[in-house]
Write a structure and sequence with these properties.
Largest sheet of chain A: 7 strands, mixed
CATH class of chain A: Alpha Beta
Structural class of chain A: alpha/beta
Largest interface: A-B, 23 and 20 residues
Number of helices of chain A: 8
Order of helices and strands of chain B: HHHHH
CATH architecture of chain A: Alpha-Beta Complex
Radius of gyration of chain B: 26 Å
CATH topology of chain A: Spore Coat Polysaccharide Biosynthesis Protein SpsA, Chain A
Number of strands of chain B: 0
Distance between the termini of chain A: 21 Å
Distance between the termini of chain B: 50 Å
CATH superfamily of chain A: Spore Coat Polysaccharide Biosynthesis Protein SpsA, Chain A
Shape of chain A: globular
Radius of gyration of chain A: 16 Å
Oligomer: heterodimer
Strand content of chain A: 15-25%
Helix content of chain A: 25-40%
Number of domains of chain A: 1
Structural class of chain B: mainly alpha
Number of domains of chain B: 1
Strand content of chain B: under 5%
């Protein structure tokens, strides 16, 4: 376990004033892990603040979306020879203290561990009505397809083995908004997924996820799940 | 039924489109690759407008009452195909653009960390990523 090189990717768009705390939070909880903040073309001091907090920063010159920012982190992790990649949102909603429990689940033999906000009903997380409906619907669909209970496919708090990150570096990964569809893809590609209950802090404001309109989210996810099911399973590595 | 007037307008339109496309390619404003569909559409419209046989066949094939509406229907269909084609190209371009944007971020970071590595004499960076060139295998 101690030989694992861990990197936590933090995709950030205009998170000045919050991202520094997130980086310090992760560094305090997992001192052995490196933190990489992917600044998705922010107009504020996100990159500088992240660097000051001790993170490596990757600055996308143009705002490219949540998925593109995350994938940049995966590419970094693959190229730098890390063995475990984590991801956590930059707005401070996720609490890094749950990362060790997720890490333990990963070493139990899972390929991807998701920090679920719904397993333990803490009540902090309240999505909008349409979005909440979409999230429940897609969680149900994902659970049906994968034959396993997955309560929170939207969670931005995840931990994965480098094989999975390498898989995500290819064109299979949606660079706009990876979500429930990615879990179905993972399942069909033979990766083992597990959920660990996490709690969230109340949202400080708008997160990177809320940029998308709820109706578009439902449309996009429905279509994406459909085409993922229609495609033949592919896997970058075994 | 198609009036001679409609026929003439359609022929002139197709010919103008064809010459316009060739002129754009000549001035290097349009790549040959992208002109293929345009030329195909212009030629198809020209053939339909100038001849009687193919248009007549098309009209009965789609069950239209008049040949002029068949001509417009066909033109519209081709235009929609062209739009779809460009949406596909745009998606491809966006994918490539994202890969380039990511590459810039990764290269900038590795350049600045290489600078640090010179001071510390650490070369594990290169050793840690065997076989991973600066440009990844994403298509």
């Amino acid at each position: 376990m101690s030989t694992d090189r861990i990197v936590i990717v933090v995709p950030a768009f205009n998170e000045s004033g919050r991202v520094g705390d997130v980086v310090r939070d992760v560094a305090r909880t997992l001192p052995s892990a490196d933190v990489v903040v992917v600044d998705d073309g922010s107009a504020d001091d996100t990159a500088a603040e992240a660097r000051q907090a001790g993170a490596v920063t990757l600055s996308l010159p143009v705002n490219s979306g949540y998925g593109a920012a995350l994938q940049t982190g995966y590419k970094y992790a693959v190229r730098r020879g890390y063995s475990i990649v984590g991801q956590i949102d930059a707005d401070g909603q996720h609490r890094a203290e749950f990362l060790p429990a997720m890490l333990a689940a990963l070493t139990d033999g899972f390929d991807v561990v998701i920090g679920s906000r719904f397993l333990d009903r803490d009540g902090h997380y309240r999505p909008s009505l349409a979005r909440g409906f979409g999230m429940r619907l897609f969680a149900r669909i994902v659970s049906l397809v994968t034959h396993q209970h997955l309560s929170d496919p939207t969670s931005g708090m995840q931990l994965m083995r480098i094989d999975v990150a390498r898989f995500f570096c290819s064109s299979v990964y949606p660079t706009d908004y990876p979500d429930a569809d990615i879990l179905i893809l993972l399942h069909r590609s033979g990766y083992r997924i597990h959920e660990v209950a996490v709690q969230m802090r109340p949202s400080p404001g708008k997160s990177m996820h809320s940029g998308h309109h709820s109706l578009y989210y439902i449309y996009k996810m429905a279509l994406s799940i459909l085409v993922t099911l229609l495609r033949s399973p592919s896997r970058g590595s075994s | 039924m198609i009036t001679t007037q409609t026929r003439i307008v359609a022929i002139i339109g197709s010919v103008l489109l064809l010459f316009g496309i060739i002129e754009l390619v000549r001035r290097r404003r349009l790549k040959e690759e992208y002109s293929v569909l345009w030329v195909a559409i212009a030629v198809a419209m020209l053939v339909l407008a100038a001849s009687t046989g193919p248009l007549h066949w098309l009209t009965s094939a789609i069950g239209a009452f008049s040949e002029s509406s068949a001509l417009y229907f066909f033109g519209l269909l081709l235009a929609i195909l062209l739009l779809l084609h460009f949406s596909i190209r745009t998606s491809l371009l966006e994918r490539r653009l994202t890969a380039l944007i990511q590459e810039i971020a990764l290269l900038t970071a590795s350049r600045s960390s290489d600078g640090e590595a010179e001071f510390h004499g650490a070369e594990q960076d290169a050793a840690a990523s065997p076989g991973e060139g600066p440009i990844d295998s994403e298509r």
